[in-house]
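Mods, move this if it's the wrong board.
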Amino acid sequence: MSINKEEPAYVKIQNDIMERIKKGELKIGERLESERDMAVKYNLSRMTVRQAIGSLVNQGVLERRKGIGTYVCSPKITQNNIMSFTEIVIKSGLKSKTEVLNFRKCDKEEMSIPEFKNDCLYEIQRRRKIENEVVGIESVYIPFKYIENIKIQDLENSLFNYLKEQGQNIKFSSASIQSILMTTLHHKLFETDRVLPLLMVESKYFNEKNELIFIENSIYNCQVYKLNININNDF
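Not the wrong board. Structure tokens:
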């Protein structure tokens, strides 16, 4: 393949890789050719190929796996305000899938959550996927009274939308965020042997009456998930 010299050669390689991903010729999770093979393909030096790949790695398009090769990453999704995971993914033009891992009713004595000490709760754990790659694990704790008749099939879609249909509009939320180390359990939940950078987000969601509706503890692969936060000076 020849490279047009109107712009830097490494940019042309980047654009070609991006186009192949867009057309589905390179799929998420697929390994790229070796730098040696790409240098032959583009008739350029390995240094130029390495520069193109490095730039796409920095953009989150590709991922280098030590001793294995370079792979196509899932596109990064960004949350700017209160939105359900389903809404975020749809707005990104991607396909999502939700797997319900746990769905059970808990008596007051079973759960020690101070905010809901007088409530019986549903405990819900869901695995979130984008383009068939696991990007997050969510654990939700919500009183019976808000989703009394919910079915497991409803949880495969947006919980926000279900609550809205029940007359509960989420008005605002608060969250604490921290990075965590990956454990054996995380490897199992994320269905991978790789060590991923994980972000834990503990959120509380409130309705228009300032009532706490549910608590959500989520763990995301921050190679894929980005959370934007606006902090105001109210002093």
